[in-house]
């Protein structure tokens, strides 16, 4: 059973109760992000994930259009990732966008993370492959 947790102008977050996964669907409106709105959005998501104590996160970022700077990448490592670890996240599957610079900025968040040892992250071009990887060898 899926339950919509929140919808904003920038994303939709859904809880898949059966699989204990939060699904995040980014919208094209992210092209209008400022650094502050970006932080507010990710903090809101991290709080929801922590509240629901899910084991995995599925991210559909094909419409994500914001280039994440180095300062925000470091902020993820210092603020968001510890929240996810505390919430019990073990796996994150990301269906990445096709725009090279944006795609690279998303991937760099995870490459530079000290928290990477606490959860596995994988990037995909295909939604089905991402979902299969996410539920393969359950994290529980």
Summarize it.
The protein contains four helices and six strands; from the N terminus they run E-E-E-H-E-H-E-H-E-H.
Account of the protein in words:
The chain is α/β, with parallel strands linked by helices. It has a single domain, classed as STAS domain (Transcription Regulator spoIIAA). The protein is built from four helices and six strands; from the N terminus they run βββαβαβαβα. The chain has helices at 35-52, 70-86, 100-111, 127-135, and strands spanning 2-7, 11-16, 21-26, 56-60, 91-95, 120-124. It has a six-stranded mixed sheet, with helices on both faces. A hairpin with a 4-residue loop joins β2 (11-16) and β3. α1 packs parallel to α2 and α2 (70-86) crosses α3. The longest helix has 18 residues, at 35-52. The radius of gyration is 14 Å and the shape is globular. It starts with a strand and ends in a 5-residue tail after the last helix. The mean pLDDT is 91.
DSSP, total strands: 6
Number of helices, counting only DSSP H or I runs of 4 residues or more:
4
Name the poorly predicted regions: none
Main sheet: strand order: 1-2-3-4-5-6
Cα end-to-end separation: 19 Å
Q: Helix proportion of residues, in percent?
A: 40-55%
Layout: helices, strands, pairs:
Blueprint: E1 2-7, E2 11-16, E3 21-26, H1 35-52, E4 56-60, H2 70-86, E5 91-95, H3 100-111, E6 120-124, H4 127-135
Parallel strand pairs: 3-4, 4-5, 5-6
Antiparallel strand pairs: 1-2, 2-3
Helix pairs in contact: 1-2, 2-3
